[in-house]
Design goal:
heterodimer; A: alpha+beta; five-stranded mixed β-sheet; globular; B: mainly alpha; 11 helices; about 75% helix
């Protein structure tokens, strides 16, 4: 691996990424800053057979999660059958009562799913998290591949690697599958959003129009884009990159200034597709994560191909007992947090912190999950031109188009801190490309 | 006209204006810098007057250091370049990553110049990137409306600046003749009378520069 010609061009690729403004936004001390997302040229490599296994498991998982969403916002059979306690549905911050009875075009709820995995030192892959709301990250390996090929064509001449630059085409296919007639737009909260680069880049690559809320309007139960010469252009699909609560001030958070009044009414009438559908948060809640393997068995009658990280719900008495006994060996996650926030490792707490945390855990057991700390494999990154091992995960992207599609790549994020297991970009990490070998 | 919203049209227009403002002020700054070398201590005061910006500088050295690079001064060159970037960054899907890259590169060169011992040489690279930006606008943007809105902004800004600087009749007429077809083809509503009046104003024996600025600023 260290002999790849590409590695000599790491700095060039990073310069090109800077040239094209490949950044993410971050708020520090109430100030917005755009930061470059450091790229490491040593790829995560997945063999064809291993990828086929992952693909099978990811499709299975996302199909089941979509069935779960349909069920939860209609019959709730999985609750009636006692597979998932209702506490975990209705107390979830991601559950939206407003979505009851709404049926998205073609029954697809999670069109774009970002599934976070790690590979353990036992060579097994574990699912860490499902992201079914507005998962981001695909644009980074996509543009990095383009720039790597430009910087080091020799590297790619003889290697048989799946071309990941087709993500835009897959996304377009996903849009077109549910578009009910009209333009497709990508709805962004604006340039001060952390993932704004991705919004604008995907718009450019898919040919969709990048819009903000003020450029769309609802008229006669349909959604329109208003052009500069005053024409109304029908919109048939919205890839929205703003969260549920800000999507429609008339139906959700009334204080939202970035949403479109009544867009959700248009959606409920079947006159526009929203990708992803509102209300998906109930399925990617960290508490619900525990139940996903059970969902797969329940809806598909199959054994899960991919495993969850061993997880405990302090909500259950038995699990609480285990968590208290093994506290120092576990990582605890606040189910309401994301982006690496609200994650604490039992063995890093002071006595006082531990005491305070345990009091909170006992008072609000539903708020936390506990997981075994998976000793996941390191990936090498280059530092001062030398390879050093760092923790890295993989975000895989599953698109529900006319069939489930798994993108033959993914976003590996790595921690730059040798002692950290937290790989999120918002915590200062970098990213890699994923090479899926085609033979 | 294609599918362009009012907001996008506005951003495209101001992208053209701010890039031109940076391009022209950098050229003017270079000329002014030259006279500063000869030790004409107050020439920067005249420069500020000529381009109608407040003189907030303590002396010649302060002007040379802060006018191009101080983000806290709203009329500095870097502030105008940042405004060009603010418009460009939200237009990636209209103008394309390749076009946007030249604005980004201009920012990098500006930041390099700020830390350079030969800032004037580095600043030339800022303008090189802006010229490349205009070139790629013509080469890669398919939408005629998008191209023409950017160019209309650029041409209007140039006339505005030339009028403020009291540039001669011939150059002004040339710029007005280049601006009018851009405005007519950009697909936005505009005031045709202003264009006619502008031509008339430049043809007069004594040019009323104030009126020219006023007319050019209210074309749209």
């Amino acid at each position: 691996m260290q002999h790849l010609e590409l590695l000599e061009h790491t700095d060039t690729v990073n310069e090109l990424l800077a040239r094209y403004g490949v950044k993410f936004g971050i708020y520090k001390n109430n100030t917005f800053k755009e930061q470059l997302f450091p790229f490491d040229a040593i790829p995560r490599i997945i063999e064809a057979d291993e990828y086929a296994y992952l693909e099978r498991g990811l499709k299975q998982r996302v199909v089941a999660l979509n069935m779960f969403l349909k069920d939860i916002y209609s019959k709730k059979q999985i609750v009636k059958d006692g597979v998932i306690p209702e506490d975990f549905i209705f107390a979830s911050s991601g559950y939206m009562a407003e979505c009851e009875g709404a049926v998205p075009p073609k029954d697809i709820y999670s069109h774009i799913s970002g599934i976070d995995l790690v590979k353990g030192k036992d060579e097994r892959w574990y699912i860490l998290e499902d992201n079914l709301r507005v998962p981001s990250g695909a644009s980074y390996p996509m543009i990095a591949r383009e720039l790597c090929r430009r910087s080091s064509p020799e590297t790619f001449k003889d290697l048989k690697i799946e071309d990941n630059r087709n993500y835009a085409a897959l996304l377009r296919r996903t849009f077109d599958n549910v578009n009910v007639g009209g333009h497709t737009v990508i709805l962004t909260p604006g340039r001060y959003n952390a993932a704004y680069f991705e919004h604008s880049y995907l718009a450019e690559q898919t040919g969709a129009h990048l819009v903000n809320g003020s450029e769309l309007t609802v008229k006669d139960d349909k959604l329109y884009f208003i052009t500069a010469d005053g024409k109304y252009e029908r919109v048939g699909a919205v890839y929205r990159r703003i969260s549920d609560e800000y999507l429609d001030p008339m139906n959700f958070n009334p204080e939202s200034l970035i949403g479109i009044p009544h867009i959700y009414d248009v959606f409920k009438k079947g006159n526009v597709a929203l990708l992803n559908a509102p209300g998906n948060g109930v399925a990617d809640d960290k508490g619900i994560y525990y139940f996903v393997p059970k969902m797969i068995q329940y809806y598909l009658g199959e054994e899960p191909v991919l495993s969850n990280a061993p997880t405990y719900l302090p909500f259950y008495e038995e699990d609480m007992k285990y968590v208290l006994e093994h506290f120092d060996d576990l990582v605890l996650k606040d189910v309401a947090e994301a982006g690496g926030y609200g994650v604490v490792f039992g063995n890093t707490m002071t006595k006082e912190q531990k005491e305070n945390f345990l009091n909170l855990l006992k008072a609000e057991p539903r708020r936390f999950i506990a997981q075994e700390v998976i000793d996941f494999q390191d990936l090498d990154i280059l530092e001062d031109k030398k390879p050093i091992p760092r923790k890295a995960d993989l975000r895989a992207f599953v698109l529900m188009a006319d069939e489930p599609l798994v993108w033959k790549s993914g976003l590996p994020r790595f921690s730059r801190n040798p002692d950290s297991f937290i790989v999120n970009s918002s915590q200062g990490g970098g990213f890699k490309d994923t090479w899926v070998l085609s033979q | 006209m294609g599918i362009i919203s009012v907001e996008q049209a506005d951003r495209l227009y101001w992208l053209g204006r701010y890039t031109e403002r940076v391009y022209t002020t950098l050229r003017m700054f270079s000329k002014s810098f030259d006279s500063l070398i000869d030790g004409i201590a107050d020439s920067y005061v005249d420069f500020c007057k000529s381009i109608d910006i407040p003189n907030v500088y303590m002396d010649k050295a302060d002007f040379v250091r802060r006018y191009p690079f101080d983000v806290e001064i709203s009329d500095s060159i870097i502030s105008n370049l940042n405004r060009a970037y603010d418009n460009a960054i939200v237009l990636r899907e209209s103008i394309g990553s390749e076009c946007l890259a030249y604005i980004q590169l201009a920012i990098y060169e500006m930041n390099k110049a700020a830390n350079s011992k030969s800032p004037l040489i580095e600043l030339q690279r800022v303008n090189d990137n802006l010229l490349a930006f205009y070139g790629i606008v013509d080469d890669q943007i398919d939408s005629e409306n998008v191209r023409n809105i950017i160019k209309a902004g650029k041409r209007i800004e140039r006339i505005d600046m030339y009028a403020r600087l009291g540039i001669g009749k011939r150059e002004l007429m040339r710029e007005i003749n280049r601006m009018i077809p851009r405005v007519e083809r950009c697909g936005l509503e505009y005031h045709k009378d202003n264009l006619l009046r502008l031509r008339g104003l430049v043809e007069e024996t004594v040019i009323d520069y104030y009126k020219i600025v006023s007319e050019v600023e209210s074309i749209f």
